[in-house]
Specification:
Length: about 750
């Protein structure tokens, strides 16, 4: 930071401190504790069994610091009015919402967005979400979700950026920048809330809310970097996670919330609990509500979401000497600082503007962007004999329970998104191909015929009463009349997301039966896949002609899918979470360790680290994704065979578009460190470049590598590099790379 920027920051901080000191000087103990209370008024969003009551009275008495789960300038305007006019000290409220992948205009689920490997687009998606959310009164979003996840059973893998810490860090930074903009005081900026701190994605057995227990090296090397990146990007707030971290629940974990987050990383914002997570400390076995509330506060938690443990017990704990005034003051200060940073004391109504509410949401431009980012998120998993792109002529049999559907297009966590405003695949195909294509449609199956899965995944579409066989027969009939079958199948929106773990991560059985019958017709079978997680697709990979992974694409789903099906956009997405062959391989991720008896890939072998009944390889590796064109990679060229200390290594490859379509390619750089003081991952992603080449065009892609790219956490948790040999790998995915070796000395 320059001297003048530093001086400016110091003077801003001095002004903020003076303002808050003055305000806190006037506050009663109850009012201070009130600032730590975050409530949901209920109705519009609820992810636990409790909602708060008596909200209006509590605003007036200063017993609430913020409200979440509501939006719209009408409601928020009224609530803010009560706070600033009718509460004794006129302290404005902060208004939070789960804006996860867009607000009104919905973008692909985060796992899909990360597959774009396009930080510009990802940042823009957060910017637009902030513009729309602020147009409806929101000033705080519970996003980004940066939990690394390597277990596809866990439903919330859909909400993050997959398995890689480096890529996850880039996404975390882009999202924070997008939400908070250049200045959080701006009327269209929101404060980001990074969640779920920490390691929530490491839940045992992929079961929701489950225990997390991992070594410190793994934590620092593989799971913590995205949270740290979000701190470095200036994120204003964090949310503590539901899980335990090595025995201590995050929400009462002083090491996590204070030593690591604040002391080691320098985080200056505030920490809110997850939904009733303070109360849930009792189920974790830490004591009654008074006790756990005191523990959470002392650990460094500043705001209590929904459970009102702070509100109802902290005064008593203070009187009994179980918490200190200084601890309450510190938490209160941090909440007030957030409001100050958002400019709410100067302008509590900065985001309450009925004109913006009408004008700035679901605009034509936002929808256009939603279509663009959806196209960029799609991953072509298979394309036998160039089945795709389709011609804009002939007859298509459009089949599947997700083909003529609006309700499932948006994916999980779309609180203010309107499924009715989404574009179905059927509509998209008509929009893009017009009358030149003849479409025959049959639903073919229900999303699931399993009543329990139907209920648990909150399906709203009524189950078709016809027998499964009748539905399949109808689909097969039209398939026989068509040139190609497009089957739109997979998971419904709520089969992933919170509280949606699955032990079987295949396409639901009713739909697989449909696919099997369609495959038997011998017609080219294109699967358009909806999924909130990596699925096991071995049958589909073996039998379909093409598979386009569309995730849950958002408001412009159908248009984006049709653009890609007909080749108006050439897909370039690459998966950011490994697709296993079988659920038994989980956890499976590319940057694993070697073991002392590594499997050499040459076939089953006794006393090697493998399975008797399945190969170690995933079905689709991290970073994998095809294109309608093909790219040739040259060997990796290094400018030096050995170098020292702070020198920079230049690694390059020449990429040639050897196919017939213009296309983008995500060129990926991995580094392996074969000899070190600890056992290192077999390789780690360190950088990438996304390039666009016309047919026949070639381009040199250069990566400048420094010792920063070689660093890792050693056994003393020191982050440094060790001299020796490094293997530089550049390729189209984590399994398919070209390599060159270099010696790097101190
Ligand atoms: C989820 C959070 C969410 C919160 C508020 C919780 O159940 O874990 O991700 O932000 O609810 O809706």
């Amino acid at each position: 930071m320059s001297y003048s920027a530093l001086a400016q920051t110091n003077s801003n901080k001095a002004k903020m401190d003076a303002f808050i000191n003055n305000l806190m000087g006037k506050m009663t103990l109850d009012e201070k504790i009130g600032q730590l209370n975050l409530v949901t008024a209920g109705g519009q969003s609820k992810t636990g069994s409790v909602v708060n009551e008596g909200v209006e009275g509590k605003i007036k008495s200063g017993a609430i610091g913020g409200i979440f789960g509501v939006w719209g300038t009408n409601y928020i305007g009224k609530a803010q009015d009560i706070a600033v006019k009718n509460s004794r000290l006129h302290i404005p409220l902060i208004f939070g919402l789960d804006v996860i992948h867009g607000h009104r205009t919905i973008f692909p689920i985060p796992l899909g967005m990360s597959a774009s490997w396009d930080m510009g687009l990802i940042e823009k998606s957060a910017r637009i979400a902030a513009e729309e959310a602020t147009a409806e009164g929101i000033n705080w979003v519970f996003s980004p979700m940066v939990d690394i996840a390597r277990d596809a059973r866990w439903g919330r893998i859909s909400e993050g950026s997959g398995e890689d810490p480096w890529l996850g860090s880039q996404v975390a930074k882009a999202m924070v920048r997008g939400y908070q903009g250049s200045n959080m005081k701006n009327a269209d900026a929101v404060m980001a809330c990074v969640k779920h701190f920490a390691l929530y994605g490491g839940a045992e057995a992929g079961r929701e809310y489950n225990t997390v227990d991992m070594s410190l090296i793994k934590m620092y090397q593989d799971y913590l970097p995205p949270y740290k990146a979000a701190v470095d990007a200036g994120a204003g707030s964090f949310m503590s996670s539901f899980n335990t971290v090595n025995g201590v629940p995050s929400t009462a974990n002083q090491w996590l919330l204070t030593d690591l987050l604040r002391k080691q990383w320098g985080f200056k914002g505030f920490v809110v609990s997850d939904y009733t997570a303070v109360n849930e400390l009792s189920s974790h076995g830490l004591g009654d509500l008074q006790q756990v509330s005191a523990l959470a506060l002392k650990a460094g938690l500043d705001m209590d979401m929904v459970g009102e443990g702070f509100l109802t017990t902290l005064k008593k704990s203070l009187n009994e000497g179980k918490v200190t005034q200084a601890e309450i003051d510190l938490a209160c200060r941090r909440v007030l600082e957030a409001k100050y940073k958002l400019g709410l004391f100067d302008n509590p109504d900065k985001s309450i503007n009925a004109d913006r509410e009408k004008r700035d949401v679901l605009t034509g431009d936002n929808r256009k962007f939603a279509r663009q980012i959806a196209e960029h998120s799609f991953v072509l998993l298979k394309n036998k004999e160039q089945t795709l792109p389709l011609k804009k002529s002939g007859t298509i049999a459009l089949v599947g329970p997700l083909a003529d559907n609006h309700s499932e297009m948006l994916g999980t966590w779309v609180i203010a998104g309107e499924p009715g405003k989404s574009v179905s695949v059927m509509e998209g195909i008509k929009n893009v191909a017009g009358n030149s294509v003849n479409i025959l449609y049959a639903k073919g199956s229900n999303i699931t015929d399993d009543p329990l899965l139907y209920k648990r995944s909150q399906l709203t579409q009524p189950i078709d009463k016809r027998s499964p066989q009748d539905m399949i027969d109808e689909a097969v009939e039209i398939a026989k009349k068509a040139d190609v079958v497009v089957a739109v199948v997979g998971e419904s929106a709520n089969m992933s997301g919170e509280s949606s773990s699955r032990s079987d991560i295949s396409i639901p059985e009713s739909q697989r039966e449909l696919l099997k019958a369609l495959a038997k017709t011998g017609k080219p079978l294109v699967i358009v896949l909806f999924n909130g997680r990596p699925l096991t697709l071995t049958w589909e990979d073996a039998h379909a002609s093409a598979i386009l992974d569309a995730w849950a694409p958002g408001t412009e789903a159908g248009n984006a899918i049709a653009d890609v099906l007909f080749g108006d956009y050439n897909p370039a997405g690459k998966i950011t979470a490994t697709f296993p062959r079988s659920v038994g391989q989980i956890p499976i991720y590319y940057n694993h360790k070697n073991t002392g008896r590594p499997f050499d890939g040459k076939g089953p072998a006794k006393f090697k680290s493998d399975y008797l009944d399945i190969s170690n390889d995933p079905l689709y590796p991290f970073g994998y994704g095809l294109s309608y064109t093909t790219f040739n990679y040259s060997e990796v060229k290094l400018n030096k065979a050995s170098l020292k200390g702070n020198e920079t290594l230049r690694a390059s490859v020449i990429i040639t578009n050897t196919g017939k379509h213009a296309g983008e390619e995500v060129v990926q750089l991995y580094i392996s460190d074969p000899v070190a003081s600890i056992s290192r991952s077999v390789k780690e992603l360190k950088n990438y470049q996304k390039i666009n080449l016309k047919p026949g065009e070639k381009r040199e892609v250069v990566f400048n590598i420094t010792t920063n790219d070689l660093k890792f956490y050693n056994n003393q948790l020191k982050y440094d590099w060790e001299p020796g040999q490094f293997i530089i790998q550049i390729g189209t995915n984590s399994s398919d790379t070209h390599m060159a070796s270099v010696q790097w000395g101190k």
